[in-house]
Amino acid sequence: MTGTPRTLAEELRTRTDRGLVGLLRARPDLLNPVPGDVTQLATRAGTRASVVRAVERLDRFVLQTAEALAVAPDPCPYDTLGALMGGDTGDAAVAAELPRAVAELRAQALVWGPDDRLRLVRTARELLSPSAAHPSPTGLGPTVAEAAAGMSPGRLQEIIAAAGLPATHDPVTAAAALSALFSDRARMTALLDTAPAESVAVLDKLLWGPPYGGVTDRPAPHLQWLLDRGLLLPAGARNVVLPREAALHLRAGRAHHTPEPVPPPLSPATERDPQLVDNAAASQAFTALATVEELLKEWDLGGPGVLRAGGMSVRDLKRTATALDTTEQLAAFWLELAYGAGLIASDGEADERFAATPAAEEWLQLPDHERWAVLAAAWLSATRTAGVVGSADAKGRALAALGPHLDRSPAPEVRRRALALLAGLAPGTAVPAAAVRSRLQWERPLRSAGAAGQVPAPATGRTPAVAGAVDGGAPSSGPAGTAPGPAGSAPAGDLRSRLAQWTLTEAELLGVTGRGALSTHGRALIDTTSADTTTASDTASRSAAASSPAPAEAPSPADTDAAATRAAALLAPLLPEPVDHVLLQADLTAVAPGPLHRPLADALGVLADIESKGGATVYRFTPASVRRALDAGRSAVELQEFLTAHSRTPVPQPLAYLIDDVARKHGRLRVGAATAYVRCDDDALLSEILADRRAATLRLRRLAPTVLAAQTAPDQLLDGLRAMGYAPAAESTAGDVLIARADTHRTPPRTAPAPVPDGPPTPDATLLTAAVRAIRAGDLAATAERKPVHAPAPAAPGALPRTTSAETLATMQAAVLTHSALWIGYVNADGAASQRVIAPVRVEGGFVTAYDHTSDEVRTYPLHRITGVAELADDSV
């Protein structure tokens, strides 16, 4: 195709396959389904939903460029766009970055045309152009022609006369003359030199937007001066607007108050020793593992119940937070982390409650670094967001931990991008969270401030004046716009900034970062490009990629798992080695000088209570804890041997006495099921129990010198006697002591919750190549030059060719002999019609075998399904 393209479709046809692949990769929604030809691709690229999705993913400067094109003439020369972005005096940074911005808009098919005729896609212009209901982020108002469209011809003539312009013959030329005056720098300066100071102050008030204001029925003289010369034009019954041309003159030609061609820097930076950062991150990673393990142990016999609407109650969340010795918000994070990793779930029973899953048993058996990899990979790709727990949903109901409606689809992208920004810094370097949030806001300003399907106004760099008070009267109820505060601030409801803040907090809790800097294993966690050992050159190239405004494509789950495995290998040497001993002390405590081997930790957890956690865990032995071990089937001798074997210090005498004393009393009393009974060989002990007033609630009576009967259940009787200071044991119907080891409660096999995608998935190279080939082939079939078909009536544009069966057969047979290509209309078995370009090879038995240029394969077509045929021009294929 030669000459200037007249439509977006014509420009797309001139693009290389690589250019179309780039468009489809940047806007994957265009692929569902694959367009039949380039015209369909261009049409789909101009739909509102697709344009909104594309505009939401522009960085701030590219978006500012699109906003400038929306208020520029259509088409807009590149120099005019440069003047709008840089102003009359120019801006070196803007001039340097503007080619990138235009190239990005053109690559995403939001802008088309050569540099001397840049055109913003119509839908994008409608979204970004200023209107009374939706003020432009530039703060500009309508043009003179738009604002004067409803004015009477007489009033227009009065305005141009007051402005010193000659009379015209119609309103159109009058508006054009006034627009030319406002756009002429010299004449406009001369006009404003005659304006009263109060009039100039009013213009300054409306200069950066909103451009609307209110007036009374009798405007003040300085306002009347502006109204008489068209510097304020009517925008309703009692509202006025500053025309766009006048505002651009007052702004020295700039469309934006503060263009932002480069992203905000990640500063101030604090440099730390990378080894200290890694050690701090590893310590926190170990704490994270211990916390999740403690959660699973807390729910070993079954967790809290599931609410009818899903999730767990606030009371249960508080209990879990108390058990984990943390806050409710952090408890929600650990719960969601375990849930996202598939370690906890609901059991699905009639009395539904949460519990650990069978996968939790497998997870507990893994080495520490592999357990961390499972948690890190689940966290990085999860869309469930613990930070929103406790906030209200659309119906005003509080969102519950482990409940529905916690998915926030941008979360994985924000997590990866926030960590990538830290990865772009030198190892051991930390920056404030506010700097990371500002960078993310710059990269996705609309996604930070707007809801899906809307294009809100990003910050203009200056808080605009309140519309409606230009004459000192009451504010008008007419059109007025608002805009967020200065760039870099976090507007209310800024989900992306909150996600970034949660990411940095959670990364520190999980041990991905340490002391605010990304750890070595944290860098490996987000590096899904290679499995090789990182070199200095690799680090430099990845740092450059991390500083790029465009976030990388989301990796596949397999890539995420592989990166987590490599990160775990780097973390492994930093984690403390498990120890197989404790230090027993005379105050009935035991100190574990490090993480204990799991069997030792489990056994000690039954025999003693954890008193304090940290680098060295302190266990305390009590009569109740020793009795718990005896109830679990251990004898006093076994407990003594266990402590002797695993203590680097001798067993203290007080501890040995405690074990012997509890063991001597343990089991002397036997509780069985009559309703319940107490049996003891020592009748004096039973008499003591009967005489104790605390036993009144147990309703005991003597059946025999060695047997007491009770009217309470056996478990209640056991608890009551233990509360009185005795050590009874439960017994079976055969008279044997029952071991009080409760069975663990596990859910049926459960899969981890799947992330909610943020829009269509990014297509892979194979799909992109096949899609471009199909689009090219379909375009060839739709646009190939054809020889005329002798038909009773000319076919409508785009209609299938129509020929008789005899003509179709004769044309096919001739094409086989001449090896020429044909254009056919074909209706498949489902009744779907399509156009195809084929090269017939053989015609026989009512079928034609041909090479199909549309699908790039040899196929066989029934002749009765071919609606018609036409020969192609010699140079069409």
TrEMBL record:
<keyword id="KW-0347">Helicase</keyword>
<keyword id="KW-0067">ATP-binding</keyword>
<keyword id="KW-0378">Hydrolase</keyword>
<dbReference type="InterPro" id="IPR032830">
    <property type="entry name" value="XPB/Ssl2_N"/>
</dbReference>
<feature type="region of interest" description="Disordered">
    <location>
        <begin position="529"/>
        <end position="561"/>
    </location>
</feature>
<feature type="region of interest" description="Disordered">
    <location>
        <begin position="253"/>
        <end position="272"/>
    </location>
</feature>
<feature type="region of interest" description="Disordered">
    <location>
        <begin position="447"/>
        <end position="493"/>
    </location>
</feature>
<feature type="domain" description="WYL">
    <location>
        <begin position="807"/>
        <end position="869"/>
    </location>
</feature>
<feature type="compositionally biased region" description="Low complexity">
    <location>
        <begin position="463"/>
        <end position="493"/>
    </location>
</feature>
<feature type="domain" description="Helicase XPB/Ssl2 N-terminal">
    <location>
        <begin position="582"/>
        <end position="704"/>
    </location>
</feature>
<keyword id="KW-0547">Nucleotide-binding</keyword>
<protein>
    <submittedName>
        <fullName>Helicase C-terminal domain-containing protein</fullName>
    </submittedName>
</protein>
<dbReference type="Pfam" id="PF13280">
    <property type="entry name" value="WYL"/>
</dbReference>
<dbReference type="Pfam" id="PF13625">
    <property type="entry name" value="Helicase_C_3"/>
</dbReference>
<dbReference type="InterPro" id="IPR026881">
    <property type="entry name" value="WYL_dom"/>
</dbReference>
<dbReference type="GO" id="GO:0004386">
    <property type="term" value="F:helicase activity"/>
</dbReference>
